[in-house]
Each structure stands twice: as C-alpha cells, then as structure tokens.
C-alpha cells in the first residue's frame, strides 16, 4: 500500500506556520504574484470579515484603502530578484489584527539602485504632519504624471495621512544589487 | 452626443453621461485595473461636451472609494470642467460624501483648492 503519511518536516512546517500565525494575530498571509483579481479578492474578503465583526465604518474604509495601495505597490514595483531587473509583482502580504489595531505588512524585492530614492521619500513623508502631507499630496497630484506603471506617486503619502501613523519600513540586502523591502502600516481601530 | 452608461462593479464606478437630459454622474468605487484605459473615453466625452453643450452643467461625484491612481484621473476630469468654466460656461460640481466619511469630504475640499471651478460639498446619510 502507498504510504499516505505526510513527511515529518512538511507536517512540522505547517504546524509551525499555523502556530506563528495564531501567536502573532496574523489573519491573512499571502506570498506570490499580486494581480488585480488577488487585490479584489483580498479586499472583499477582509471587508466581509470586518462587516461580520461589526468593525466601524471609518476603520473599514481605512483598512480597505491601505490594503489596495499596498497591494498595488507590490504589483507595480516588486523586482523578480534575477539579474534581469524586471518586475514580477511578487511579494508577501500580511494582515495582523489585535484588540487595538490592524497592521498591514508587505515585503518585496527591490533593486538596490532604487533603495535610496524610496528611503528618501518615506523619510520625507514620516517627517511631515497632517497639513504638510496634504500640501505634498496636492502638489504631487497637480505636478505628477502617471508613471509608465500607472502609479501616481501618491500611495505612500495617502497611506500616511489617512492612517495618521508613521510608515515603518526597513531594507535588508538579499544579494548583489537586490534588497528586501518591508513596510508596515498601522491602523488604529476606532469605535 | 451618444450617452455613456457604465454599470458599476466592485472595482469600477457607475458612470452616466447624458447630454440629452443633462445628467453627468460618477458614483461608487473606483479602482479599475487600468485607470487610464477606463477614464480615457470619459475624458474624451467631456471634451466634446465642452465644444457642443450650451446649458448649465451640473457634474456629480458620489464616490464611496477611489484609489490614488484614480485620484489623478478625477483631477483630469475636474480640470476639463475648469476649462469649460473659464471659457464662460455655467459649471457646478457637486461632490457628495457620506456624513461620517471625513476623508471623502476632505478629498472634495482638496480638489476645490486645486481647481478653479465651483465645487459644492454635499453630505448624505
């Protein structure tokens, strides 16, 4: 008879994964290509869950907004990590939920040559207060053209001003010319 | 002019552009997969309206949600309306927002700061 027992290391990996998710209050995790349908599926799934849990309208809208912008960032900008320097829209996406907050985390590869610019933008955004962010948003929407990837350069600014939280991020070198970029956004749960 | 009527879904807004009965309306959610492809025909239509339409234009936005990529295209629409207004046409934009949605209200206010066209903010329940 064919042995149907799962290989031990695989079984342990699944159990470990399950435990990690529970312990860290991770309610959704995905690794792979982020497409438009994936974005729609995750946002509607999360929306339904929030409605079932009677989350306030304001929190629901903010979580929805941050999710869309974060997912679109990966789909437009994630590097494939090969030497060819092309984007493949793959990354990791996670939603954590605790008593007080939602945490949306994304991780994706990025070419080292783009790290400096991205870091500068994020530092700038984090140094501004709400009114200054609004001014920056208005300036960017007026002057900015949609890039070839159909990004308006507004996503991070809008995340920061809608959540009122600082963007938490870090870069970690993976190999020659490629780094891993992690971004976490916090949304306070409002009654 | 031919009427544009698009039924909204969970990622595209409902659009009604009808020069015959003077209804110009974009409502619902806007996060289309390809924003420029979605809004291009709408922008072209509005340009044509500017050349041919003689009556007062009341353009209504009643959006629940739009992503940042759409926000740029919404500004493009408002800028077309601004051009018409500057050319002497009677144009009014009505920006509807749910009464508990401060962000949507602020978005309307910000557009009003950017473009020179009368924008009326209207809250609803």
What are the SSEs and their pairings?
The complex is a heterodimer of chains A (191) and B (125).
Chain A: H1 8-23, E1 26-33, H2 36-52, H3 57-77, E2 90-97, E3 101-111, H4 112-127, H5 130-143, H6 155-163, E4 168-175, E5 178-188
Antiparallel strand pairs in A: 1-2, 2-3, 3-5, 4-5
Chain B: E1 4-6, E2 14-18, E3 23-30, H1 35-52, E4 57-66, H2 68-86, E5 91-98, H3 102-114, E6 119-124
Parallel strand pairs in B: 3-4, 4-5, 5-6
Antiparallel strand pairs in B: 1-2, 2-3
Query: How many structural units, i.e. domains of chain A?
Result: 1
C-alpha-based Rg of chain A, rounded: 18 Å
Estimate the strand proportion of chain A.
15-25%
What is the average of the pLDDT values of chain B? 95
The neighbouring-strand order within the major sheet of chain A is 1-2-3-5-4
Q: Which residues of chain A form runs of ≥5 with pLDDT under 50?
A: none
Instruction: Tell me the overall shape of chain B.
Output: globular
Tags for this model:
heterodimer, A: 191 residues, alpha+beta, Heat Shock Protein 90, 5-stranded antiparallel sheet, 6 helices, 49% helix, B: 125 residues, alpha/beta, 6-stranded mixed sheet, 3 helices, 6 strands, 40% helix, globular
What does this protein look like?
The complex is a heterodimer of chains A (191) and B (125). Chain A has one domain (24-188): Heat Shock Protein 90. In chain A, helix 3 (57-77) runs antiparallel to helix 6 (155-163). The termini of chain A are far apart. Chain A has 191 residues and is of the alpha+beta class. Chain A contains six helices and five strands. Chain A has a five-stranded antiparallel beta sheet. Chain B has three helices and six strands, in the order E-E-E-H-E-H-E-H-E. Chain B is globular. In chain B, strands 1-2-3-4-5-6 form a six-stranded mixed beta sheet, covered by helices on one side. With 125 residues, chain B is an alpha/beta fold. Chain B has one domain (4-100, 120-124). The mean pLDDT of chain B is 95. Chain B has helices at residues 35-52, 68-86, 102-114; strands at 4-6, 14-18, 23-30, 57-66, 91-98, 119-124. Chain A binds chain B through residues 36, 39-40, 44, 57-58, 61-62, 64-65, 68-69, 72, 134, 137-138, 141-142, 144, 146, 150-152, 154-155, 158, 162, and chain B through 10-11, 31, 33-36, 65, 67-69, 71-72, 75, 98, 100-103, 106, 110, 113-114.
């Amino acid at each position: 008879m064919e042995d149907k027992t799962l290989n031990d290391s695989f079984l342990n990996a699944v159990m470990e994964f399950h435990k990690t998710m529970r312990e860290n209050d991770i309610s959704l995790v995905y690794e792979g290509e982020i497409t438009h349908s994936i974005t729609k599926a995750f946002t509607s799934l999360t929306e339904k869950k929030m409605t079932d849990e009677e989350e306030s309208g304001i929190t629901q809208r903010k979580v929805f907004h941050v999710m869309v912008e974060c997912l679109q960032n990966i789909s437009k900008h994630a590097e494939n990590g090969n030497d060819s320097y092309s984007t493949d829209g793959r990354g990791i996406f996670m939603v954590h939920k605790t008593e007080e907050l939602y945490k949306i985390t994304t991780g994706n590869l990025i070419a080292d040559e783009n790290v400096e610019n991205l870091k500068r933008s994020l530092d700038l955004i984090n140094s501004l207060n709400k009114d200054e962010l609004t001014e920056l948003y208005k300036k960017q929407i007026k002057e900015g053209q949609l890039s070839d990837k159909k990004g308006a350069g507004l996503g991070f600014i809008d995340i920061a001003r809608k959540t009122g939280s600082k963007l938490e991020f870090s870069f970690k070198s993976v190999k020659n010319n490629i780094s891993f970029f992690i971004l976490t956004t916090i949304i306070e749960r409002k009654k | 002019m031919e009427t544009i009527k698009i039924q909204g879904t969970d990622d595209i807004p409902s659009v009604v552009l009808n020069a015959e009965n003077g209804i110009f309306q974009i409502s619902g959610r806007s996060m289309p997969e390809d924003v420029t492809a979605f809004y291009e025909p709408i922008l072209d239509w509005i340009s044509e309206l500017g050349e041919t339409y003689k009556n007062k234009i009341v353009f209504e936005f009643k959006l629940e949600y739009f992503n940042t990529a759409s926000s740029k295209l919404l500004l493009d629409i408002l800028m077309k309306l601004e051009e018409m207004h500057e050319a002497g046409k009677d144009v009014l934009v009505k920006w509807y927002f749910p009464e508990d949605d401060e962000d949507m209200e602020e978005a309307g206010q910000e557009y009003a700061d950017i473009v020179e066209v009368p924008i009326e903010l209207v809250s609803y329940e």
